[in-house]
Amino acid sequence: MTSAPLRFGLVGTGYWAHIAHAPALASTEGIELAAVWGRDPQAAAALAAEYRATPYEEIEAMLAVVDGIALAVPPDVQAPIAATAARAGKHLMLEKPIATTEAGADELAAAVAEGQVASVVFFILRFRAEIRQWLADVTARSGWHGGLTSWFGSSLLESSPFNTPWRQDKGALWDLAPHVIALLWAALGPVTSVTADAGPADVSHLILHHQDGASSTVTVSQNGGEAAAGFEAYLWSSAGRSAVPRLMPDPVPPLRTALTELAENIRAGRTEHACDVGFGRDVGHVVAEAQRQILARRPG
Ligand SMILES: NC(=O)c1ccc[n+]([C@@H]2O[C@H](COP(=O)([O-])OP(=O)(O)OC[C@H]3O[C@@H](n4cnc5c(N)ncnc54)[C@H](OP(=O)(O)O)[C@@H]3O)[C@@H](O)[C@H]2O)c1
Fold first, then answer.
1. Is ligand 1 within 6 A of the CB of residue 178?
2. 13 CB less than 6 Å from ligand 1?
3. pLDDT per residue over 255-273, tens digit each?
């Protein structure tokens, strides 16, 4: 016997909701994209109509009719909405970073614990099939001394659909570094400390230490220019290097995987996931500490 699909509401109607969350929710087995809420009611109605979902003008009304929500809004908007939803018993498909302050992340993690709901944070690299295969391979072999990573994006170019106010404000440190920290965490073990500095063109440099002694570096920018854009990452040991596979552009397959695992947890009554809200909070704490150091080093 197949059970009824879990009803999900989508929070946000922007570019990312259109190209990632809506198509992934609508094409994940066991999930129904039932409802859409956005601060612009016309945009919510238009997006809902595309998927035969119901648009809501009041988020509370949407929360009353769904099992869970997927969020595609800026992190400082996501955190309080997700906390309210969790306390109302709604499961969460979250975006990274889960918040842009440690207090916001702690508050959200506490709400998830209180509501006893399942949560998954969409650290996209952790849900790509080819990267999961790479992670399985490198974690089966011990002896890595460390990792080197750089991700130069172009989201802060004027022409980019990702050139949004929160990214302009928070930059690649909050936008890209969480993805890379989440990847290195899985490859080399829990991060125990960070040292950080920054340069021009939105560049942040992080040195991470991992629990078992490995160290790694993260360099990220969303404004290094299109010609410099690219992602490079590898682990190294005395035996050589292992490079992370090339990034694929389509976000829907990995988001579908994240939603499938969230749905499996909901049905099994499980709340833990390798990328749950607690992990999102831990990654956020590393970023917040890096931010503190960068601000402290800034002259004047
Ligand atoms: N996992 C990944 O690989 C990945 C990739 C891309 C983005 N993301 C994440 O997705 C999230 C959203 O992406 P984005 O930054 O590109 O989107 P954004 O354009 O900044 O925001 C998207 C939506 O949030 C709404 N919004 C903005 N401010 C709001 C407010 N104060 N109250 C209510 N709604 C508000 C926008 O409404 P309007 O349309 O009315 O402005 C729009 O519907 C971020 O957390 C980002 O990190 C993740």
1. no
2. yes
3. 999 999 999 999 999 999 9
